[in-house]
Amino acid sequence: MDKKDIYEHLAKIYLDASSTKKKKNRIYSKLFKNLFLISLVLVFGLSGVLLSRLRPYKQSNSEVALILAPEALKINFDFDPAKKEILTLNLNRLNLNNYKKIAFSLKKMNAADKIALRVEFTSAFKERSEIYIKDIPNKWHDYTFDLAQFKNITDWSETKSLEFSVEEWNSKENKGIIYIDNVRVLK
Asked: In terms of pLDDT, which residue wins out, 37 or 4?
């Protein structure tokens, strides 16, 4: 073997080895980058999940609610034959111990009418308590009341019904309509 053959042989070995090394380095660098990105995503994703589980997230305008009436309700009263018009929601012994408030929206149809609405809870133990809402507007208005305002209910573990009623002596007109929507209890 002469010098030229040796140089070509060494060059071939060196060049083949260096190109293989470069290919391996490129593969390893891509693999390392991908693994690094995946580990970052996992670390930040899992830490976010763990942190959200450890501390409760509360937003000031959010509410935890139990919807009692999913659709709008209508009290169409006519006091010619009757003296009272009642809309009853059967609560089926619903436990409201963990809830603090009741909320709903109201509006009346006749702007000139002055109406007071009676809101009454009844427990399975025959306890009844009511509040009155006066001056109901003819545009939707939200109302929220503490359950503590229903003073005659001592045990909220088995509520029987929620009633909305319009009484003749609490209405200026003999006929009218009141709409009730988004009836819910809040924690």
From this structure: 4
